[in-house]
Amino acid sequence: MRLLLILAVAWFFVTCTSGPPEPPRDFDWTTWSNAAAGYSMDVPNVYEPDVEDGGNAVFFRWNGTVPVKAYLTDLESAKHHGLWVGEEPTGSATLGGLPAARYDYTHCDGPFCSQIVSFVVERGNRWLALEFRADRELNPVNQRILSSFQLLPAEAGG
């Protein structure tokens, strides 16, 4: 009986995938620029940017979640962090005026997993990814963020 309980608890944690967060409802738009990674985009002013890795990774936090992330990374680091590397693209899109690969995948941090929609472009010898915590469909807030995404000139970063 104890073994069954242990297996049930382990199964729960292994299969615990949370849904996407609800988008904010009452906010203004602000343009957020990242010269270190070479992009700008409109985001809700209620999102708090958490800048890491010298500006190469930004986690936009809101209401106890991270609905949007942006990374400038190499493939080794992306693979180490469990990003899109190794996944098959699910489509194509445009990111900052460049052709981008779209990835729909599950990212797990410990026992908790989230569905991610990622748009990835090559930027020199690195990769720039804009990621949304979403289950295949982007909500209107995420769609505006994606459509507003612009690459800065190479000398400004990236």
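Above is the first protein from milestone M3; the second protein from the same milestone is given next.
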Amino acid sequence: MRNTVLLRVDLTGDFKPLSEGTLVATFALLASEKNTQDVLVSDGKGAEIDLAAGREFRFERVDLSELQVKSKAGEVVFVVGHTAG
């Protein structure tokens, strides 16, 4: 059975995981249209990617606790999807 995943993540200047605990999901990571700076996304193993304001990046069956994000304080990203079942 799949459950809905809806998260708002308030960002800081330091990398932080999208989830504190293991949460495997298929989801879109959306940078708020109100952001004034790109969001950096990293798995901690490779290059960081930039996610511009208003843009989204899709992930399939990924553990949210393994993805880290940062930007300037006050910026926001949203996670919209469902658990992998």
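Note on the second protein: The CA atoms of residues 23 and 63 lie 5 Å apart.
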